[in-house]
Write a structure and sequence with these properties.
The protein is of the alpha+beta class and about 300 residues long. About 25% of the residues lie in helices and about 20% in strands. It folds into two domains: about 1-170, ph1033 like domains (ph1033 like fold, Roll), CATH 3.10.590; about 175-290, Trna Endonuclease, Chain: A, domain 1 (3-Layer(aba) Sandwich). The chain has eight helices and 13 strands. The model has no long low-confidence stretch (mean pLDDT about 90).
Length: about 300
């Protein structure tokens, strides 16, 4: 019967408010919520009320075993798909992932939905997540609440997008990846391409565009051509290519004496590039695509 089909829910992980929350959920195979009973939030009604708690409580009541749960992260990213194994959301089942302390006298994330991750979908490495492309994103109404039922996307469509390695990006937390990357290229441009140097003209190098943005880095190659570099932490997208092409157009208008320009989009995530991005990059003027990989090693000192 159609009424017994597994539902699809989105649960938002407050990774920005609680850095490391997604890794805790991944490790404990759960999605977890606040509203501690010790602070007066009662699952059976009464006590503290509020629109947020009422919506979460109603959604938790509707969720059932074997429903699918999609973990959503800030910035149109998702972590993993999981199926509900058990709900431990009642007041007497409060078991906080964030232990009690001065800021959280009752702990936090204590109402848990136990999940079984589908490890056949998406990257295996917990430090990688999926950046949903523009053609496959949750609706605004699905994004806003902590928990929402998903109807804009099918489970089959989500699986397809999450299994495409072109959409995989590093979790990276609050690390200012793009800023650090552009600073690195500005300091060591030859690592991007042998013979490249910082552009000698300060007015060109520090130019501000009509929309009050600036290129991440402006270099000069060994053929004395100006190179406009745009850095992206995650996968290369058609909109990133369009943004860089717009920068090239503005540079041509503002500095016609520069002649032919090059545009290089430096991207992260998976090395594989989605077909729509390749098509956009091949349009004139062509945009070059360069993949970067972040690697940090630690060793104990002697």
């Amino acid at each position: 019967m159609a009424g017994t089909d597994p539902g699809l829910w989105k649960v938002f992980c407050e990774e920005r408010s609680y850095p490391g929350q997604w890794l805790l959920w991944y490790q404990h195979q759960c999605a977890a919520f606040g509203w501690p009973p010790g602070a007066g939030y009662q699952f059976q009604g009464g006590g503290n009320t509020g629109l947020g708690w009422s919506r979460v409580r109603n959604a938790l009541s509707e969720m059932k075993r074997d429903d699918w749960v999609l973990i959503a992260l800030p910035g149109n990213r998702v972590g993993r798909l999981g199926r509900i194994v058990e709900k431990k959301v009642m007041d007497n089942q409060w078991e906080p992932l964030v232990l009690p302390g001065r800021d959280y006298p009752h702990g936090e994330n204590g109402r848990r939905i136990l999940l079984r991750w589908d490890m056949t979908v998406g990257p295996i490495d917990r430090e990688w997540v999926i950046d949903l492309p523009g053609r496959c994103r949750l609706s605004a109404g699905e994004l806003r609440p902590t928990i929402s039922r998903v109807s804009s996307l099918t489970i089959e469509r989500l699986r397809e997008v999450m299994c495409d390695s072109a959409n995989w990006v590093r979790l990276s937390g609050t690390f200012r990846h793009e800023s650090a990357l552009s600073d690195y290229i500005a300091a060591y441009p030859h690592r991007l391409e042998e013979g490249m140097v910082p552009h000698p003209n300060k007015r060109v190098r520090e130019n501000t565009f009509p929309d009050r943005t600036r290129a991440d880095v402006i270099l000069l190659d060994r053929m004395d051509r100006t190179v406009v570099v745009e850095c992206k932490q995650g996968a290369a997208r058609p909109e990133h290519v369009a943004q860089l092409r717009k920068y090239l157009d503005w540079m041509k208008t503002g500095f016609p004496e520069l002649g032919a320009l090059r545009g290089v989009l430096v991207y992260g995530g998976s090395r594989r590039i989605a077909d729509d991005t390749l098509r956009e990059a091949s349009k004139p003027p062509g945009i070059e695509l360069a993949h970067h990989e972040l690697s940090v090693d630690f060793m104990h000192g002697n």
